[in-house]
Amino acid sequence: MAAQFEAFPDPCDNWIVWDLKRDDFAVLGSVPASCLSKEDAIAACALLNRIATGRSRDRTQNIAA
Fold first, then answer.
1. How far apart are CA 17 and CA 43, in angstroms?
2. HSE on the CB side for 47, CA within 13 Å?
3. What is the pLDDT of residues 33-59, one digit of tens each?
4. What is the 3-state secondary structure (H, E, C) of the chain?
5. How far is it, in rounded angstroms, from Cα 10 to Cα 12?
6. What is the pTM (predicted TM-score) of this model?
7. Distance of CA 54 to the CA centre of its chain
8. Phi–psi pair at 14, nearest 5 degrees
9. 65: pLDDT confidence band, cut at 50, 70 and 90?
């Protein structure tokens, strides 16, 4: 499955996270994911893609334990 979100630099040397499905800025809470540092954009993009695909960060963790 292709990623829904992509992080890339904007013309002002900030970073954004783009929602490829909606063809618009990704939204974190109620705030557009724009004017981010590279590190924050990459982290937000990874998190949003994990959420979109329903994958947890660590599948080996037993929540019931």
1. 10
2. 12
3. 999 999 999 999 999 999 999 975 555
4. CCCCEEEEECCCCCEEEEECCCCEECEECCEECCCECHHHHHHHHHHHHHHHHCCCCCCCCCCCC
5. 5
6. 0.79
7. 13
8. -100, 180
9. very low
